[in-house]
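TL;DR need structure tokens for one chain.
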Amino acid sequence: MSMAETMLEHFTTVMTGTRKALERVPFDKAEWAPHEKSMTLGRLAGHIAEAPGWGLSILTSDGMDMAPADGGGYTPPVFESTDDVLAAFDKAVSAVEATLPGMTDEALAEHWSLKSGGEEIMGGPRGAFFGNMVTNHVIHHRGQLTVYLRLCDVPVPGMYGPSADEK
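>> reply
TL;DR here they are.
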């Protein structure tokens, strides 16, 4: 099994569970946050939805400058509904699932850079960067999202077997 095939299997498993959590986001509570330093529920769901799209960038470019010196840069999308979040998430996941199988081990070993103002903030082998900044990043925020769901009295879906709400 190639590195890309192994990564794809893990990515698909994580994204399947993540979608189950995103499906339950009550957008009528989009502005709710558990603490003043926390993201709102709507922003957290949107952040999770946009992360797979970064994966496509990691797989198909040499790097990304979040704030290029000439202006512009990355602007997070704004979502108006759970359906919007799911549509963006599904589109990005599908794009990664279509691209990842074509990646060679050599391409996944190439350096990828995240920059700001032309300066590298972090970088590393493309495959490792993808795993850390996409798959692991989604897992981290998905954990936060399930706590938000619990605090909003929304039944939490199981990720690695049934949740307390599914027993």
